């Protein structure tokens, strides 16, 4: 009997994942990852949050109802170093990071899997909407979920072959409604618990205030400028803005304008028209391969953000750790720091970090 550690967040998805694995005959152990830096911060995540004190209690109650052991493991140091510090550093460089990708790769998998193996487990499982499959070439990859609106493969593209080989994702063939239905039939208290909509360590969704606190106010105000460098006004600091942003600029231009570029070296935020937010190509670095050991030069589907429906593009290697993507139609707000993830036939080929997306 295989022993599986299930990362239990206190939500309905991981709870049902634990149930399904136990039903299939696995020896299941529930683990909730403690990642918050301060206990008073954790207390605010009572409504759908994945990592706070209420989440720990919900996970414990579910584990008890399922008849499986439950433990809380401390991953604060890993989370601070791999996720929060990375998040703050990238924003200060004028980029827009995706902390969930970093958390999945280095905390939920690297750190949790290491501890799971150390206690004799065969692998880990999560409540992500995705599936793990092994291709004809022997490589593991992720298969997209049953419904596109719940698919979570984008944020998981950085997982390694070793991690995928020891990963179970039982929810890939279920819809959210089906998962809630299972939890309801079981009488689990989390059956209708709302999903978390924010980054877990910024529960009020105020990125700018969080970054100001972390950087001790070290980000100076600067100028809004147009592409030619003409000053249009003053901004609060580059960490308050991202590519494609329209709201919160407080510029009296007489028509909607958008952030088209962030220049950390001069602390300038470039403002432009709606059409300037679109690009026909982008350059990505930090390449990671999944279904294939390299990107084939062929037309694939690419997603440039989590909720992007995907667009057709040609991927071409342009260096040892660099590729260029040529889109069949311009895409909106290809943002440095975000991931571009490539798909073929519903499976993840791999991806990289967007380095530059504007002409």
Strands, helices and their partners?
Layout: E1 3-7, H1 12-23, E2 27-34, H2 39-42, H3 53-66, E3 70-74, H4 76-92, H5 99-118, E4 123-125, E5 131-134, E6 140-143, H6 161-165, E7 167-168, H7 176-186, H8 207-214, E8 222-225, E9 231-235, E10 258-263, E11 268-272, E12 278-289, E13 299-303, E14 311-319, E15 322-332, E16 339-344, E17 347-356
Parallel strand pairs: 1-2, 1-4, 2-3, 4-7, 8-11
Antiparallel strand pairs: 5-6, 8-9, 10-11, 12-15, 12-17, 13-14, 13-16, 14-15, 16-17
Helix pairs in contact: 1-3, 1-7, 4-5
Q: Would you give an account of this structure?
A:
- It is a single chain.
- The chain has 359 residues and is α/β, with parallel strands linked by helices.
- It contains eight helices and 17 strands.
- The chain has a six-stranded antiparallel β-barrel.
- The chain is globular, with a radius of gyration of 21 Å.
- The N and C termini lie far apart (55 Å).
- About 3% of the residues have low confidence.
The rounded Rg comes to 21 Å
Compute the average pLDDT: 92
Total number of helical segments?
8
Which runs of at least 5 residues are low in confidence (pLDDT < 50)? 40-48
Strand residue content: 25-35%
Helical/strand content category: alpha/beta
**Gap between N and C termini, in Å?**
55 Å
**Helicity, in percent?**
25-40%
Largest sheet: 6 strands, antiparallel, barrel
What string, H for helix and E for strand, traces the elements in order? EHEHHEHHEEEHEHHEEEEEEEEEE
- Placed side by side, the strands forming the largest sheet appear as 12-15-14-13-16-17
Number of strands: 17
Shape: globular
């Amino acid at each position: 009997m295989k022993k599986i550690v299930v990362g239990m967040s206190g939500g309905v998805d991981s709870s049902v994942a634990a149930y399904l694995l136990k039903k299939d005959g696995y020896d299941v152990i529930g683990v909730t990852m403690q990642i918050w830096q301060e206990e008073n911060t954790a207390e605010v995540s009572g409504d759908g949050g994945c990592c706070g004190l209420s989440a720990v209690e919900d996970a414990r109650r579910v584990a008890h109802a399922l008849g499986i052991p439950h433990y809380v493991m401390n991953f604060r140091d890993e989370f601070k170093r791999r996720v929060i510090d990375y998040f703050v550093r990238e924003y200060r460089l004028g980029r827009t990071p995706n902390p969930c990708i970093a958390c999945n790769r280095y905390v939920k998998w690297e750190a949790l899997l290491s501890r799971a193996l150390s206690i004799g487990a065969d692998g880990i499982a999560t409540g992500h909407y995705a599936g793990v499959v092994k291709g004809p070439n022997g490589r593991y990859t992720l298969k997209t979920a049953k419904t596109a609106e719940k698919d979570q493969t984008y944020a998981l593209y950085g997982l390694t072959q070793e991690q995928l080989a020891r990963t179970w994702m039982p929810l890939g063939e279920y819809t959210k409604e089906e998962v809630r239905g299972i939890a309801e039939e079981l009488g689990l208290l989390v059956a209708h618990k709302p999903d978390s909509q924010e980054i877990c360590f910024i529960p009020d969704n105020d990125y700018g205030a969080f970054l100001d606190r972390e950087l001790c106010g070290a980000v100076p105000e600067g100028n809004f400028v147009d592409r030619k460098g003409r000053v249009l006004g003053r901004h609060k600091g580059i960490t308050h803005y991202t590519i494609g942003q329209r709201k919160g600029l407080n510029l009296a231009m007489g028509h909607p304008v958008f952030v088209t570029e962030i220049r950390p070296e001069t602390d300038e935020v470039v403002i432009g028209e709606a059409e300037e937010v679109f690009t026909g190509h982008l350059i990505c670095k930090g390449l990671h391969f999944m279904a294939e050991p390299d990107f084939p030069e062929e037309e694939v589907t690419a997603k440039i953000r989590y909720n992007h429906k995907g667009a057709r593009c040609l991927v071409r290697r342009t260096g040892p750790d660099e590729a260029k993507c040529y889109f069949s139609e311009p895409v909106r707000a290809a943002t440095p720091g975000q991931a571009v993830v490539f798909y073929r036939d519903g499976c993840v080929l791999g991806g990289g970090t967007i380095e530059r997306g504007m002409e």
